[in-house]
Amino acid sequence: MGVVSELLKDVKLPKMVKIRQVFPREKIENIPEVLKSELLKEQIKSSIKPGMQIAITGGSRGVANIALILKEIAAFVKEQGAHPFIIPAMGSHGGATAEGQVEVLESFGITEEFCGCPIKATMETKQIGFTDETQFPQQYPVFIDKYAAEADGIIVVNRIKTHPAFRGTYESGLMKMMTIGLGKQKGAETCHEVGVKHLAALVPLFGNAILKNSNILFGVGMIENPFDETCKIIALTKEEIPEKEPALLLESKALMPKILIEETDILIVDKIGKNFSGDGMDPNITGKFPTPYASGGIKSQRVVLLDLSDETHGNANGLGMAHMVTRRLFEKADLEKTYPNSLTAKIVENIKIPMILENDKEAIKAAIKTCVEIDKDAPAIIRIPNSLHIEYIHISESLLEKAKTIPGIEILEEPKEFLFDENGNLW
Known about the structure:
By secondary structure, the chain is α/β, with parallel strands linked by helices. 32% of the residues lie in helices and 21% in strands. The strands form three sheets. It has an eight-stranded mixed β-sheet. A five-stranded mixed β-sheet has the order 3-2-6-7-8, sandwiched between helices. It has a two-stranded antiparallel ribbon with strand order 4-5. Strand 9 (263-272), helix 12 and strand 10 (299-308) form a beta-alpha-beta unit. The longest helix is centred in the middle third of the chain and has 15 residues, at 199-213. It starts with a helix and ends in a 16-residue tail after the last strand. The model has no long low-confidence stretch (mean pLDDT 93). This is DUF362 domain-containing protein.
């Protein structure tokens, strides 16, 4: 037994209880039908002319039904006699390489075969203009994807939701997809150069410059319910994007899920990854933000991360917001894919390397041992599968009475011991 194992051997683990968090679940049952009705709006449909080469943006987030949505948009474009193609629009994600960005799209099911159109990937950009010099102390050059700049039209597609690092009128959505996504690594770095605290101003600054100086046709925005399911699709003309996106952001925020127990000693996250959040785990859920310009989520003394998702392809963004991780997670981390995003965004807190423990059991025990001013015999622990799916979670026995008083929580089982395999990892 090593020194660390010896120090942790007497730490007691509490029993855990499976619970269900009940959230509203309105969703779209027929995605193609609803999307088609939006695309058939005269101002949207009429923007597509026969023979046009049209770029459709594909992002790096785990957006619900994104492959199906892109497929249906591509089919609609072809019905109008135009020629669609998909471009990776994800800033520096995918290791900041064209091949890596195609790999990210493929992990979401976005392939040429499924979507019925080509995927054109490049990290090359073209400067299309400058930001409005009257709106910010400094004027910036504006870059977008080379293929998009050369196309006859661009359709911007993205989910609209709260951003994990800043608060503003526009956060994650269509304006940000243009600013950061279409901008590729170069455009994203330009926008991030002055720091995250200015993103609330820079996202609309760059977004409006792109709307003015490029060939954006329209945008398709999606809102998701608390279960990561599409509950709203709306097509917006290029003029409507800056006008209507702020209200859609507020609508999305009202639907955002959360951990209904607001405070715990320890939060365990089974898996992190880019398919769950741009930050690996959504700070709006976990309460661990990489910048001081946003807040929210659960309060905890310690965060334990157990594994990386397969879909994140080694991108370990988010591990720096934890206190303990497993060796399994660390060995899956590909730093060449993890660091480009931080180098571009100028945010390094979320990729620092925390304490690495041999297995799940020791990682959890280390978290308990290092907490202060808690009941070590009955620590408060919440365990979630990831930050995107938090309907079914586990809480420690000490939180059971509190949970019974909170509307929206159902107790599903009696308290049970943690179950570990022969390697000390949770079943």
